[in-house]
Model the fold of this input.
Amino acid sequence: MEFVRRELKEVLGEGNVLVNEPMSRHTTFCVGGPADLFLKPGEEDLPWVMELLKRRQIPVTVIGKGSNLLVGDKGVRGAVIEVGGRMAKIRHIGGECITAQAGAPLARVAQEACKKGLSGLEFAAGIPGGIGGAIVMNAGAYGGEMKDIVTHVKVLDGDGNVRELSNRQMEFAYRNSCVPKNGYLVLEASFRLQSMDEARIRREMEELREQRMAKQPLEYPSAGSTFKRPEGHFAGKLIMDAGLSGYSVGGAQVSKKHCGFVINRGDATAGDIRSVIRHVQETVKEKFGVDLNTEVKMLGEFS
Ligand SMILES: Cc1cc2nc3c(=O)[nH]c(=O)nc-3n(C[C@H](O)[C@H](O)[C@H](O)COP(=O)(O)OP(=O)(O)OC[C@H]3O[C@@H](n4cnc5c(N)ncnc54)[C@H](O)[C@@H]3O)c2cc1C
Done:
């Protein structure tokens, strides 16, 4: 590992190769133990980095803004690759199209679209992820989803080839896409939007922002909706009806403002959060016979 670390530092630069980096610094839940190696490559470095890690048999985990992750307290073995600030360019904005790198924050891309009078990303303006994470998750809100606007996506496959996939090839589904099953790394995505009056787009974004502020516990660290929407139900309502509003373990709690959110009240461990999630799943299953699956992705080692 020491040898690999030195090789990576030579190519990526000292500040882009971190050792034993606490994942709590890179997740919106603000929990998670250390990653053995935490890498911040640029797009041009990625084929080489992936090849090196594969050759050295070092496991790789790719993350974006960490806004849909629960990382275990014992951290992540191997290398975590952050697709972030070094891959955050909006490459093209013109006509009714936008192309952005995977590390670009969704909110910034939505704002830039708005400034150009392009509608279609309003739903995404309040989602705190990056373009890559949003593509992987087919992020959505208020009736919009990434799949409605994506034209194509550039990915790096496991053999180091860059491939361009069409919307259909992405196999978008509810909070899912073909990326996890194929082990792709998302590099860039292109969107088709619609010309519209800028003021109208801004108004819509502002209204959605106000709805979020009113309904979601944004004052606490979380990863947004903890559970996927079960067919025919709303997760938050089931959890409330099960009497679990405010249920807590250590510093983790079912939000009283929105039961679909598990929040970190300040000093939660990943273990506390996972215990709350499990208790909620068991109780809802017992009371209503409904399986609640997590939307949040669990990574790394838990105690
Ligand atoms: C307050 C709050 C509100 C939220 N509201 C919404 C909402 O309205 N709708 C919604 O859908 N989500 C919502 N979320 C969840 C989250 O923001 C989205 O799922 C977002 O798309 C995740 O993006 P990310 O960059 O943070 O990805 P991460 O959380 O870092 O990663 C998510 C998954 O994608 C993978 N991944 C990330 N980047 C790449 C890449 N470049 N290549 C390959 N794999 C990658 C990771 O391995 C992981 O499996 C909310 C979260 C918070 C905290």
